[in-house]
Amino acid sequence: MKLKCFNVLLLDYNRSRCMQVDYLIHSSIDKEKWDRSILDAENGLIYACSWFLDCVAPDWDALVSDDYRFVFPVPVKRKYKLPYIVQPALTQQLGLFGRDELSESLLQEFLSRLPSYSYEINLNYLNHHPEAQLKTNYVIPLQPAFTEIQAAYSKNTIRNIQKAGKRHYTFTELDPDGFLSVYKKVEHADKSINIDLISKLIHTGFEKGHIACCGIKSKEGEIHSALAYGNFRNRITYLFPVSTEAGKKYSAMFLLVDTLLSIYSTKASFFDFEGAMIEGIARFYKGFGAIQQPYRILKRLRPSFLVGKL
C-alpha cells in the first residue's frame, strides 16, 4: 500500500533553516502549483510539465518541498511488487527543478528520498552529480540576430539549404493530424516507436499551446519534411522530425530548420536539438552551429531480472 506522503526535514545550509520534503502520490499532486513551479524554474523543461508526464508516465509521483519551490518528478513502476524508476519514453531530461539555485547537496538529498533502490534517471542540464554519466545534447542560443546565427553554419549546411531553395519549397504550419499523416507514412528506423503515444503527446501539447507543427511543402502541395516541436519557456525543442524520401533527396529538413531559426532568433532562448548518439545526426546539428549543453544519466542498482524487461 502506498503512503500518501512522508515528511523529511532537509537542512538548507544556504538559508540556515529547515526545509520539508514531501513524497506525494499522483492523486495528491497539485498540478496547478506544479506547472507554475516548472514555468518559474530556470531549468524548466517541457518534459516536466504535468500534461507531458501524464502522457508518458500516467501514474507519476513527485518529491516536493517548500510549497513546490523545488520539485522532482518520480516516474515509478513496479515489477514483482518491487518499485523501480525508469526514464519514460520520449522524455530526454527530468530530475530536480527549482526557482532557486540547485546545489549538488540538494540534488543528493532528493535522490536519497526516492522510493526505490533501483533507478535510471536522466537528470536535466543543471543537475550535477559526480557519479552520473554525461550525455550529449546540442542547442543553438537564439539571442543573436539571425545573420549571426547563419554565420556559424557549415559550408555543407549552406549548400543543402541552397539545394532545397531551388525546389521552390514553401514553409507551412500544420495541425497535429496534418503532421501525423506525414509521420505515419514514413518508415522509421526505430521499430519501437509508439505512434499512439506520440499522437497523444502532440495533440495534448498542441491544445496546451506548447507543441506546434510545421512542414516544408513542394510546389505540387506535398509535405516533404515536417516537425512537431516544443515551445516552452522560450526553448524550442526539436521533438519529432520526419522526412519523406523526396525530402531527404532535396534536403528539405535543412530548409525547415533554417526557417525556424529565422522565426525564433531574438524571440526565444535556445533551439534544442535533443541528444545525438548517431554521428550523422550529430553532424547535421553541428552544421547549424549547435553547441553542447550536456545532461546526465544516473543509474543505481539495476538487477539483471529488471534490465530489458521494463
SSE topology sketch:
Layout: E1 7-12, E2 17-24, H1 31-40, H2 50-56, E3 61-65, E4 70-74, E5 76-79, E6 82-86, E7 97-98, H3 104-111, E8 119-123, E9 133-135, E10 137-141, H4 146-150, H5 155-165, E11 170-174, H6 176-185, H7 195-208, E12 211-217, E13 223-232, E14 235-243, H8 245-249, H9 252-264, E15 270-275, H10 279-286, E16 291-292, E17 295-300
Helix pairs in contact: 2-7, 5-9, 6-7
% residues in beta strands = 25-35%
**Tally of separate domains:** 2
- What is the gyration radius calculated from CA atoms? 21 Å
Mean pLDDT: 90
Helix-strand pattern: EEHHEEEEEHEEEHHEHHEEEHHEHEE
Note the total helix count: 10
**Class of the largest domain in CATH?**
Alpha Beta
Tell me the CATH superfamily of the largest domain: Gcn5-related N-acetyltransferase (GNAT)
What is the helix fraction of residues, given as a range? 25-40%
How is the CATH topology of the largest domain named?
Answer: Aminopeptidase
Task: Provide structural commentary.
It is built from ten helices and 17 strands. It has 310 residues and is of the alpha+beta class. It folds into two domains: 7-135 and 295-300, Aminopeptidase; 137-292, Gcn5-related N-acetyltransferase (GNAT) (Aminopeptidase, 3-Layer(aba) Sandwich). The strands form three sheets. The protein has a seven-stranded mixed sheet, with helices on both faces. A five-stranded antiparallel sheet has the order 1-2-3-4-7, with helices on both faces. Strand 5 and strand 6 (82-86) form a beta hairpin. Helix 5 (155-165) packs across helix 9 (252-264) and helix 6 (176-185) packs antiparallel against helix 7. The longest helix has 14 residues, at 195-208. The protein is globular.
